[in-house]
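Marked as duplicate of an earlier ticket. Keeping the data here for the record.
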Amino acid sequence: MGFLDLFIVALMPVLKILLITAVGLLLGTERIDILGANARSYLNRLVFFVFSPSIIFSNLSDTITLDSLATLWFMLVNILLTFLIGTALAWILIKITRTPQHLRGLVIGCCSAGNLGNLPLIIIPAVCGEENSPFGDSSVCSTDGEAYAALSMAVGSIYIWTFTYPIMRISASKTEEIVIDGSSIRDNNSRETSHLYSEIDTEALLPSKGCPSSEEYMDQVEPQSTGSEGKAKVTLLQKTTLQLKMLIGHIDLKKLFAPSTIAVIIGFLVGLVSPIRKVLIGDDAPLRVIYSSVSLIGEAAIPCMTLIIGANLFRGLKSSGVGPLLILGIIAIRYIILPSLGIVIVKAAHRFGMVESDSLFQFTLMLQYALPPAMNVGTISQLLETGQSECSVIMLWTYAVAAFSLTLWSTIFMLVVA
């Protein structure tokens, strides 16, 4: 199959996303105002508490078995790698652009957390349904693809609340501490504020309550070592340990066990335990009406989440405050560096036997490196009340570019795995 044929196959699901997003953008305008601030809030709650858990549960319980789990384990590692690599690249971008302290957590969130939820749920089944799809029988491809996308959404949600949220929370806390300690910050002009933020050490993390600061901790550690080399080694080790403790201390268990996470646990339980599976799933299952009802509710998740994306992007049209260099850096990380590394990582994993020859699974793993920032990053910025307008601008530009980059990278990924 030629490049043009694969390009058309990759283009169709992206066009579907663009059309639904455009509808959401239109409904979010002030003239129509169907998806205004209050409506988005209510719809977000429905998606968070009802629609997303339903689609995750229905897809996982129907497709995940002990045999399939032995094949899918690498996805957990692959998604973790997207977060770790994205975070490392974000720190480099922060150093280069001298990003203000109040935006550093947002930059890390946008670079590390991809939209592992509704986009794979739209793209993968849509690619399977195309006539020239390289992934074989459409019904088998769609069933497997929905399982891959649901697992991607579930694992991504867990990583966002255990990895990205603590980092953004630490950054927000550091910003609050700066404002409290230097009461004149908000009163100074923008040049003084920018200069003050540029002087902040990007590697300094705010310790949790009851923990000593990095400087105090170093003062306690240094007398224990002798010689400059020993002191440097101990300092590096203790500093790394301290930062890991602070990161773990900022994990919010209530958000970790969100409805989507609970749906993952229940979905795995139903899928892996045969007696429960036979009771709920199948034409002869006595309680099949429960599964059918949950599955029906879950079908509303994809259109609702995509409409919300479009409505939220409208705010980016009215906002400013983010430098073009920072936006270009985030776009370069998400759409050039990460996808390129994704091909190398997945092919290497396949070569060393960690990933089987399933072309659809390899395509899914590569796609996880090419997605735009997760919409949950915007939710976290609202929750922490920092960088909300800047987040809207970043989301607007990254999702606008994603329309072209997703099509191109999807085509390249299909050429690589075919």
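See parent ticket for discussion. Residues 183-233 have pLDDT under 50 and may be disordered.
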